[in-house]
Amino acid sequence: MNKQLEHFIDQQKALLAECLRGSGRLDEDSPDIPGISDADSLCEQFYDSIGQPVNLLLYPRPKDGIDWEVLAKELKAFGNEIIDKWHERKKAQDKREAYEMGRE
C-alpha cells in the first residue's frame, strides 16, 4: 500500500500545483486551486482511488497505520506554499505591467 499511497499523495500535490503551470498571464485575484481535503475525506479519496471505497460516515477509519491527520496537514502546508508562489508570480507580473505602462 505504500507505493499506492505515495502515488495518491503525488497526484494530490500535482492537482494543487496545477495553478502554477504554464507561463500565461495571471488574470485572477487569487489562484484557482482545488480545495484541500480534511483527514477523513483524504482517507476516503485514497481508498476510492485503489478500488476499496470506505464510508467514514458509517464506519470508522480503517486500521491501516496511516496517520491521515498528518497527511492532511502536509497537503495543506504544500497548498499554502503553492498559493504563496502564485501570489509572488502575480505580484511580479503586476509590477512588470505597471512598469511597462509607465514607459509607454
Q: How would you describe this structure to a colleague?
A:
The chain has 3 helices and no strands. By secondary structure, the protein is mainly α.
Topology summary:
Layout: H1 2-17, H2 39-49, H3 68-103
Helix pairs in contact: 1-3, 2-3
Secondary structure tally, helices: 3
As residue ranges, the low-confidence spans are none
First-to-last CA distance: 59 Å
Secondary structure tally: strands: 0
Mean pLDDT: 87
The H-and-E topology, N to C, reads as HHH
> What's the main sheet like?
none
Strand content: under 5%
Shape: elongated
Binned, the helix content reads: 55-70%
- CA radius of gyration is 18 Å
Structural class: mainly alpha
Summarize the structure in short:
This protein is an all-alpha fold and 104 residues long. It has helices at residues 2-17, 39-49, 68-103.
Task: Based on the model shown, name its key terms.
104 residues, 61% helix
